[in-house]
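# nightly structure sweep
# worker-07 picked up a monomer target from the shared queue
# config: single-sequence mode, recycle default, output format = structure tokens
# input follows
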Amino acid sequence: MIGAIPIILLGILIIVFAVRLLMRQVGRRHTQVVTLEDYTGARVALDSVFVENVAIKRIFAMEDVAFISQEATPEVRRFFLKERKRLAIQWVRVTKKDFAHLMDLHLKLASYTDDPNPRFEFGLTATYLCFLFVSNALLVLLWARGPFGTASIVGYTLRNAEHFCSVFSLRLEETDPLKLGG
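# output follows
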């Protein structure tokens, strides 16, 4: 029974996030129109995630900290670790903000598709909620352990972000840009 408690808590957390997200969007859905500029901006944002992942992996590169540990003075090491931690936290925050914007756009784009698919909608929402959970856990670990003590969860977060972008790309492909507002 004790082993089921984390699973139950995770399930409740997912349901709470999903209800909150849906309630927030229901109020906005009728008043907002998706423009061609929104559509183009989403495509640019998705493409940049894939390109940026190479640079982001560099923030967490263990060979950098190994080099600094061997070659630098204690002041340089402290500065290096502080700056890498700041960059890592900033990346997580910006990515969460970008994905929240993409999720809002996704919910608006759902009305512009010719064939709505509830399974697809649930899958993307679950992927987004998983990303939120993992990125929040990463933020906590970054504060506690720094960027070099979080390698496994960073890799998982990057894979989750790439998966979200891949699934979101499917939404953009299913959207008819000619139906969008000017």
